[in-house]
Structure formats: C-alpha cells, structure tokens
Target: Acyl-CoA dehydrogenase
Amino acid sequence: MSEFEALCANDGDLAELRASVRRFITSDRAAHGWEPQIDSWLTSWDAGFSERLADAGYVGLTIPSEYGGHGQGFLHRYVVTEELLGQGAPVAAHWFADRQVAPSLLSYGSEEQRRRLLPQIAAGRLYSAIGMSEHGAGSDLAATATRATRTDGGWVLNGTKVWTSGGHRAHVAIVLARTSPLDPEHRHAGFSQFIVALDSPGVTISPIVTLDGHHHFNEVTFAEVRVGDGDVLGQVGDGWHQVTAELGFERSGPERILSTAILIFGVIRALGPDVDDRTATAVGDLLGRAMSLRQLSVAVARDLAAGRDAATRAALVKDLGTRFEQESVELCADLLESVDDPGGLRAVLDTARLHSPMFTLRGGTNEVLRGVIARGLGVR
Model:
C-alpha cells in the first residue's frame, strides 16, 4: 500500500464501510428528520439515533465480539466517525463512552467491568461523562484537587469537576482523583481513575449554560461519594499514565477538524462551480488545509491502531486542527458574502461563531499543548 493510499483510509474493507455509513445517514435522516449541527459530537444529543446507529453496527466497532462489539480496528471507527461528523449527525449521546471509555476499559479495566459496561456501550445505551477538568486544573491536570480516600471496601470521593459534557444525562463518569499526597517533585504521581455512577448519593450536577442558551456543560460536585473497589479503573496510582493514553484518542480524532464541516461543505456547495479566481483561491486554500490536517489525523490513527505512542502528534493534530476550525468560521463568512441565496447557512454560521471560542480550549488549551509538543520533540 502506498503512502497516499494509506492516507485515503479506503484500503481493504474501509471503502465499503464508508459507503455503507453514508447510506445509513441518508436513510436515517430522511426517516427521522434530524438536522445537521455544528459541533454535533458535543452538542447534538439524540439517544434514539445512537441506538439506531448501534443496531446498524456502527457503535463499538473496536470492542471485541465477546463483549458485544464488532472486533474491528481503530481505523474502522475512524472512518465511521469521519462520515458521521462530516454530515453533522447527532452522535453526542454515545460519543464519550465509545471514544474514550471503551478503549480505557479494554486497556485497563477488570474483566467484571468489561462485561458490565462494554455491551451497553456497543449498544449505544451507556452514556458517560469524563471527569478530568477542574476550576484550578484545566489543561494542567497535575493540579487536580479532587481526592479519593481509602475506606473499608472502597473509597470516599470529594471534589468538583467542571466543563463536564453531558454530565446531566450520563449514567457514569470516569473521574480522575488524587489517591496519595502531592509530591512537589513528582506532580504526576499519585492519581487514580474511578468509574462513578452519577446517581450516587453525594453527587450534585449543576448546569453551565452557553451563550446560545444551550446546556451541555456541567459542574459536578462529589461530596463524600462512596465508590467500591470494583469501580477503580486500572491500578491505583496509575491514573496519570491512563489519562495520558486516553487523551491520545481524544485529541487526534477527526472531531478536531470537522466540527465546522457542515458549514464549510454548505458554503462550497452554495458557491457552485462558477466562481472568480479570488474565490476559487480562497476555497482551494481552505480545502487544502483541511486535507493536510486530515492526513496528519489519519497517520496518528494508524499509529494508535498499531499500538505505537502518538501523544506528541495527537497534540499537534489538536493544536493545528482546532485553530483551523476557528479560522474556517470567518473564512466561510467571507465566502458567504458571494452567495446570492445563503438560505439556512446564515444560522449555521451564527452557531459556528458562538462555538468557535471553545474549539481551542477543550481537550487541553492549545498553549499548553504546544509545551507537550515541544517536549515530545526534545525541545527544552
């Protein structure tokens, strides 16, 4: 396989998978009438769609069949994700469970945890939140103050997480907490992860409403929340290593490039083939940047699929991709001035502008990620 063919991600059975997902999306939208959304992986929650998608075999692709999944590779999930996001499909309900929780369970979870949770994820019926960020520990997760204290038969959790996407609807949250005292010389040591049921006594979920009036973020407070030993994810004290691996999946996926895809594609379709040289150049530059970033993202996906360390390049995808997403909004706004009848694209543009400031914050601010990239390249 040539390098170009590898970047196309259409080798083997991937091309047929891509075509089948497109057919499903077209059919499902016609039958159920959902509308494509900007940032659909974060804001567009449709439990029915997630279940239909799972019934069609497009959720839990990387989960082994013994746990209810399909036993396919990470690239299969990449192709499905790319097609869903490219059409703004409402995938938020199952998103975090499928993207992050399933790989973590397969890498670090106990057999009991896998059999309890993975079949529900593959069925699109388990909703999960990620409890990482805090008020004083966003991109600098080593400053996490949430604590888990040993008790008979388990742990007691105290602390607050913020920007918890979908927490008000999620069944569980994967919570990063400190389980041993802070060592200033080793700030990344002493963390563990816990699977916390969000209907547990002591859990309080408070909404964070965005500028457009939508509620998908939350502040989640844990006050003397009891967590059993069976809900420790991985090994006590290995939380930092586990979170770092998990962030590779979060930072490198096509969602770091395609959050504004429906706006970009809609504007280009509205422009049509008869454009002047200046407009053609602007469109070419926009798509050229998108294609280059996609190639980098696919290359990272192949590394992850092969079990290779891709933390540095994943951070690079997130930095470059989310900056492109932000810049694409105003580039599309300029191009839209040449469209005689923009139709609903004005509303899509307005939504994209409201969401744009978030692109470079979530998953680690770009400024901090540049430090990760520099260290990965050996720069001090």
User: Anything to note?
Assistant: The first helix runs from residue 3 to 8.
